[in-house]
Amino acid sequence: MSLTVVGSIAFDSVRTPFGERQRMLGGTAVHFSLAARFFTEVRPVGPVGEDFGAAEFELLESRGIATGDIERVEGGKSFFWRGRYEYDLNVAHTEDTQLGVFGEFEPKLSEKSKAADVLFLANIQPDLQRQVRAQCGKARFCALDSMNLWIDTAKDSLLAAISEVDCVIVNDAEVRQLTGESNLARAARAVIERGPRAVVAKQGEYGAALFTDDTFFALPGFPLEDVRDPTGAGDSFAGGFLGYLDSHTGELDEASLRRAMGYGTVLASFNVEEFGTERVARLSREEIDERLAMLHRMTQFEPLPAAAE
Amino acid sequence: MSLTVVGSIAFDSVRTPFGERQRMLGGTAVHFSLAARFFTEVRPVGPVGEDFGAAEFELLESRGIATGDIERVEGGKSFFWRGRYEYDLNVAHTEDTQLGVFGEFEPKLSEKSKAADVLFLANIQPDLQRQVRAQCGKARFCALDSMNLWIDTAKDSLLAAISEVDCVIVNDAEVRQLTGESNLARAARAVIERGPRAVVAKQGEYGAALFTDDTFFALPGFPLEDVRDPTGAGDSFAGGFLGYLDSHTGELDEASLRRAMGYGTVLASFNVEEFGTERVARLSREEIDERLAMLHRMTQFEPLPAAAE
Q1: String of b and e for A149-170 (b: at least 16 CB within 10 Å)?
Q2: Are B218 and A217 in contact (CB < 8 Å)?
Q3: Composition of chain B by helix, strand, coil, percent to 5
Q4: How far apart are CA A255 and CA A85, in angstroms?
Q5: Hey, of B248, B301, B304, which one would you mutate to test binding to chain A, going by the most A CBs within 10 A of its CB?
Q6: Which residues pair with A10 in a beta bridge?
């Protein structure tokens, strides 16, 4: 039981109608790891600069996250993103992106990272995803995320990477863009025909849908009256989803995939309640399971009236 | 057990990437009635012109729909809408709207219509909705729909109408616009504070969400690989939802509201499979219940692994 994630480790400056934060700890691998650590031993692999210091390592390590594969580049600067969200939090604007050491990233995996049971290839250049995938031969479940940039600039490489994983976890607009199919069910089928057994289409506040060759499952986003910062929600989703799957000792069947969707939904919902990693960093497993039970109650119905009616 | 719907009866000319139809029978009250008739006796109330002939009456009557309150205006023309949808069927363009007799509509309800157990005030001017509501004193459940036009031009009147019904069934963007709240959960609460016990937010292909004072429930849209014409999907949803509620002899509790959401989702999904009323007009109750069972299987999960795992 061990989970490796390869992706960005960053500082984020974020402004939303509900507040503002400067240079918060962020990045895909960070949000993912903070969510996944409730379920398993997680190892983020990614580069940071000299601005990534003892406080940042301490935050991760105190939550049981293995930081040995975080590569600190002397003289370098960490990935930095600054963005703002409109009153409608679905509308985001990037104001600054500085790749820093992430621009020259060449993943170097320790033996422990290579031995992962579950692997998440977060949104990085698809050739790098393939290199990492090739090194993790023991993984029983591999998933990848991607983005419009790679669909536009490295589509063949991305399609090759997709054919080598078990699961694709992307925004629903990206499933459509990748396949040129505006119908999501057809688009998901087109992805599955390339090899993966599952496609998870993230749908923002509407939740997420899971497609396999012969099944469909969907969960709404957990309803929240206070959403302060959506940054990292998708990565927290993936962390909850794959973290649970790594912890699940049985077969990764439909029932366990659906339960993993539930954990992903719950972790994403906690993520957006406060800025950056604030909420997930002080979350407890009890709160997670309590919210999963609430989500369960919010999604169940009986197609036939009880006999007594 | 009887259901009255007040709304448009129209001819629609529709072009989508999957075909084109001229002057199909359409309109809110038509789509609603064709969905609701599987569950109960439904009476559409609305005006038509001389272009609405024996064939149109026959189509409705042969499906058990009571047409006595369809008012045929001598010398008038029926509501006409022409629109097209882009490759992404979520993007619609109205190319022509001719209100015809609908522009001068003053609802006249027969005694049978006034005696309805369930009432649906489809999207018409809110003062007219209130007039109709006042005449239907026996209804045990009243719902209304509306649109951005009335939020912009007759908001006070619309808010008064909302305070007089049990349920608001609108697009989720309209819940937000109506309340000035971008957060859907807060927006729904603001509507409920005005009187209704439930808000149904229609979310297009993402499905629909049900809010009450202390519960939340959501269903995804039924996944379809072939969607040909989305026109009328929301009205078919409302027809399945309210038709089921009218047929349900027990208390209209959370379980029955959720089951009604299921029927609404199923009717909407059949509606979009073909153009206009084509699919729903030849649908059977067996097909509906079969799809409801499929929807049920697509939305259930177990938060805890089975003990044997």
Answers
A1: ebbeebeebbbbbbebbbbbbb
A2: no
A3: 40, 25, 35
A4: 36
A5: B301
A6: A26, A79
Q: Give contacts of A224 with chain B, Cβ < 8 Å.
A: 183, 185
**CA-wise closest residue to A136 among A165, A107, A114, A113:** A114
Q: Do A205 and B218 touch (CB under 8 A)?
A: no
Residue B303 has its nearest CB partner, among A226, A250, A292, at: A292
Flag if A259 and B303 touch (Cβ within 8 Å): yes
Q: CA Rg, chain B, in Å?
A: 19
- From A72's Cα to the closest Cα of chain B, the distance in A is 39
Interchain proximity A184–B218, CB inside 8 Å: no
Produce one character per residue of A36-66: b if its CB has 16 or more CB atoms within 10 Å, e if not: bbbbbbbbbbbbbbeebeeebeebbeebebb
**CA B232, CA B50: separation in Å to the nearest integer?**
23
Separation between Cα atoms, residue A301 and residue A178, nearest integer Å: 34
Given the cut 0.85, state whether the ipTM is greater than it.
yes
Spatial separation of the C-alpha atoms in residues B309 and B306, rounded to whole Å: 6
pLDDT tens for B209-220 read 999 999 999 999
A chain contacts of residue B192, beta-carbon cutoff 8 Å: none
Compare CB distances from B183 to A225, A250, A296 and report the shortest one's residue: A225
Task: Establish, for the pair of chains A and B, how many residue pairs have beta carbons separated by less than 8 Å.
Answer: 123
CB atoms within 10 A of CB A115: 15
What is the rounded distance in angstroms from the CA atom of residue B206 to the CA atom of residue A209? 10
Asked whether the beta carbons of residue A301 and residue B306 sit closer than 8 angstroms, the reply is no
CA distance A157 to chain B (A): 26
Using an 8 Å Cβ cutoff, are B230 and B85 in contact? yes
Q: Where are the beta strands (DSSP E) in A138-259?
A: 141-144, 167-171, 198-202, 208-212, 216-219
Instruction: Give chain B positions within 8 Å (CB) of A87.
Output: 182
Q: Which residues of A touch B87 (CB under 8 A)?
A: 182
**Tens place of pLDDT per residue across chain A (309 aa):** 999 999 999 999 999 999 999 999 999 999 999 999 999 999 999 999 999 999 999 999 999 999 999 999 999 999 999 999 998 898 999 999 999 999 999 999 999 999 999 999 999 999 999 999 999 999 999 999 999 999 999 999 999 999 999 999 999 999 999 999 999 999 999 999 999 999 999 999 999 999 999 999 999 999 999 999 999 999 999 999 999 999 998 899 999 999 999 999 999 999 999 999 999 999 999 999 999 999 999 999 999 887 644
Q: How far is A180 from chain B (nearest CA, A)?
A: 10
Contact A303 B309 (CB under 8 A): no
pLDDT at residue B30 in the model: 98
Predicted confidence at residue A161, as pLDDT, reads 98
Tell me the shortest Cα–Cα distance from A76 to chain B, in angstroms: 40
CB contact under 8 A, A89 and B182: yes
In Å, how far is B113's CA from the nearest CA of chain A? Answer: 27
Residue A94's Cα: distance from chain center in Å?
19
Q: pLDDT tens digits, residue range B193-209?
A: 999 999 999 999 999 99
**Token match 């002057």: residue?**
B23
